[in-house]
Write a structure and sequence with these properties.
heterodimer, A: mainly alpha, 0% strand, B: 70 residues, mainly alpha, 3 helices, flat
């Protein structure tokens, strides 16, 4: 039983970790639904494996890892790759709208990996998402655990956030499969672009005005951007529908 | 030897496709944007606004160019 004095530590660690866990699960589910699940899950498991080794080896010394450069590199890679899907998603949705359920559209499988081996793109996106977000959860656990002088409660808070949000991701992943591929590519591209912008700029040591809440503002900005460009493309080039 | 060279080429191609893709100007704009943001930050000038603007603008330019090509 956790004493009432440690309850605020548990709740705070859980809520802070939940933000990072949501980002982690969003990336894994989005990439898995778009590129295929096998390599995405292998990437996520690899990320958890590396994370476990880092946590076991470093323990409380984890807070000495320079997270800034890691955020910058991961953010840059997510941003440049996310922008590719963001742009393709805009062009394809402008050309074909939201029509085309899975299995009916010859274009929709273009991003799906059909080769025999590992899809390294899906693996890398999933691996980076799990490793970076997992490290951030570990930092939160170490910070709150050290502050309260009780790592046990902080670990329960952080681990339960990851387990609960992974469970939610597992439940919703079948529903995500029903989304038309071109639209899904736009959604995941928007998410990766938002996370990539946030992390790369934060990695430079720049403070965002609303901290993690800025991710929501970036999502709104990029959704508005996508809608604007889709509208402009549909007005300007009706022939695009045949070309895409 | 040729097998090792094949892996090197495949490794290089993977990273090229991942970072550059079908439009090198997008990756270049992101790279330059981050350098400028870093310079602003180093000079104690608020710079968080720059990257979102670059993303919005370069997306429009790239999408326009892709649709014009078709």
């Amino acid at each position: 039983m956790i004493s009432t004095s440690l309850l605020p530590v548990l709740i705070t660690t859980f809520l802070a970790s939940a933000v990072e866990a949501t980002e982690m699960v969003t990336i894994v589910v989005g990439v898995g639904a778009t590129r295929g699940w096998r390599s995405t899950i292998i990437g996520a498991v690899s990320g958890f494996g590396v994370l476990a080794v880092i946590v076991v080896v470093l323990g409380a010394a984890l807070s000495r890892i320079p997270i800034g450069p890691l955020r910058l590199v991961v953010g840059f890679l997510l941003l440049v790759f996310g922008l590719q899907w963001f742009r393709k998603g805009i062009t394809r949705v402008a050309a074909r709208g939201l029509a085309g359920m899975p299995g009916q559209d010859p274009h929709e499988t273009a991003e799906q990996w059909t080769g025999p081996g590992i899809d390294w793109t899906a693996w890398l996106l999933s691996f980076k998402g799990v490793l970076l977000e997992g490290l951030e959860v570990a930092f939160i656990v170490v910070s709150f655990g050290a502050g309260a002088n009780n790592y046990g409660v902080a670990i329960i808070g952080g681990a339960s956030a990851i387990v609960i949000f992974l469970g939610i991701g597992f439940v919703v992943h079948r529903s995500v499969r029903r989304i038309p591929r071109s639209f899904l590519q736009l959604i995941v591209g928007t998410l990766l672009t938002s996370f990539g912008t946030f992390w790369s700029v934060e990695g430079l040591g720049v403070d965002w005005p609303a901290s993690d809440g800025t991710i929501v503002a970036l999502l709104i900005l990029y959704v508005a951007t996508a809608l604007t460009y889709i509208t402009l493309l549909r007005r300007r080039a009706p022939r695009l529908r045949e070309a895409a | 030897m040729s097998r090792i060279w094949g892996w090197v080429v495949a490794f290089g191609r993977f990273w090229y496709d991942f970072i550059i893709g079908d439009d090198w100007t997008v990756a270049a704009a992101v790279f330059i944007g981050l350098i400028l943001t870093g310079i602003l930050n180093a000079n104690h000038i608020v710079g968080w606004w720059l990257m979102p603007i670059i993303v919005v603008v370069i997306t429009g330019v790239s999408v326009q160019r892709t649709s014009a090509r078709r």
